Amino acid sequence: MSGRLSFIVGLVLLGFLGLIPVLSVAFEDPFLLTLFTRIVIMAIAAVSLNLILGYGGMVSFGHAAYIGVGGYTVGILAFHGVHAAWIQWPLAVIISGIVAALIGLLSLRTKGIFFIMITLALSQLVYYLGNGAFAYGGDDGLNIMKRSDFGGLLNLDNRPTFYYLCWVILLATVYFVHRTVNSRFGMVLQGAKSNDRRMATIGFPVHRYQLTAFVLAGMICGLAGVLTATFTGFISPAMMHWSRSGDLIVMVVLGGMGSLFGPVFGTVAFLLLEEVLSSWTEYWKIVFGPILVLVVLFARGGIDGAMVRGQAGALLAGLAAFFLLYGVHSAYEDEWLIPTLILVAACALAWVAKWAIDRKGARHD
């Protein structure tokens, strides 16, 4: 029943995302469409990461590199006068897959912290290649003067049209990942996450399955990079910095690893919190950090896991606490210290309460 709740909430959320252009017009708020376009694009990248992190157990700390590869492919082709989307987009996805294959061939020979460090190092290598591409702006980045051309089929300069294109791609990505992880391929991938030696002993070529998943995730993330470059009309090495990869991991963990809609939940929550908290203070991560700690302590499995375990009430309580905090901030206008101290105090009380409950339970045992 709780699993069905998570599924229903996920479908409702995707339906709500489909109504954003209408709501943007109804509330006369163009920024709403801009914000949710970014959310939908990042959700695609998070869903791709979930394929290898949530279902495959591969903690890649360089996933944002593929966003940069996809974006730079579009930007470089546009710089040389190639604007046809039928050339730009497939080529960007293919090159992202090739880069993912090269990184996967090297990193998948290791495990644990070594795998994390190698993916981080190789992604930073790609980042510095972008930094050194002075012909295309180097560290300053490159403006894309003309968006991808679909030959009159789609006008990407029309913001609602571009948004719905991103939304349809998100739906297709979620469906593709769902079918993939429930196929024979996906079962082997999840089995390797639990015990790769046993799967290899049975006779499955585990390394080949993991590499295939790694390449698929890179290609999907590269497509998210294409959408990012088309949306912003700008590319820069910052797109593939390691901190962006960290953000993607937080989105997946926050929403729920190894779940169908978890990355979408996490992306929406992360970027909405970022938008609201950054309007309070440039030190918004001081506030966001304790919120993430609360999720780890009380909602293991993320937002999706909380719903599966029947903790929807706790999620609603957390949402109510956030809006209460937002109200306190509004009352103090530009003062950010007082709301931050209130949140830190609330986190401390929550931790003490959890410690007391766990200690009491240990005594009874």
TrEMBL record:
So where does this one cross the membrane? 6-27, 39-58, 64-82, 89-108, 114-137, 161-178, 213-236, 248-271, 283-300, 312-332, 338-357
Going by the UniProt record, its keywords in alphabetical order are: Cell membrane, Membrane, Transmembrane, Transmembrane helix
Q: Which CDD domains match?
A: TM_PBP1_LivM_like (cd06581)
Question: Pfam families from the entry?
Answer: BPD_transp_2 (PF02653)
Among InterPro entries, the record links this protein to:
ABC_transp_permease, LivM-like
- GO terms for cellular component: plasma membrane
Instruction: Cite a single GO MF annotation.
Output: branched-chain amino acid transmembrane transporter activity
Q: Where in the cell is it found?
A: Cell membrane
Bilayer topology term: Multi-pass membrane protein
- Kindly report the protein's main subcellular placement as a broad class: membrane
Instruction: Write the protein's name.
Output: Branched-chain amino acid ABC transporter permease
Q: Which organism is it from?
A: Ferrovibrio terrae
Which taxonomic lineage does the organism of this UniProt entry have?
Bacteria, Pseudomonadati, Pseudomonadota, Alphaproteobacteria, Rhodospirillales
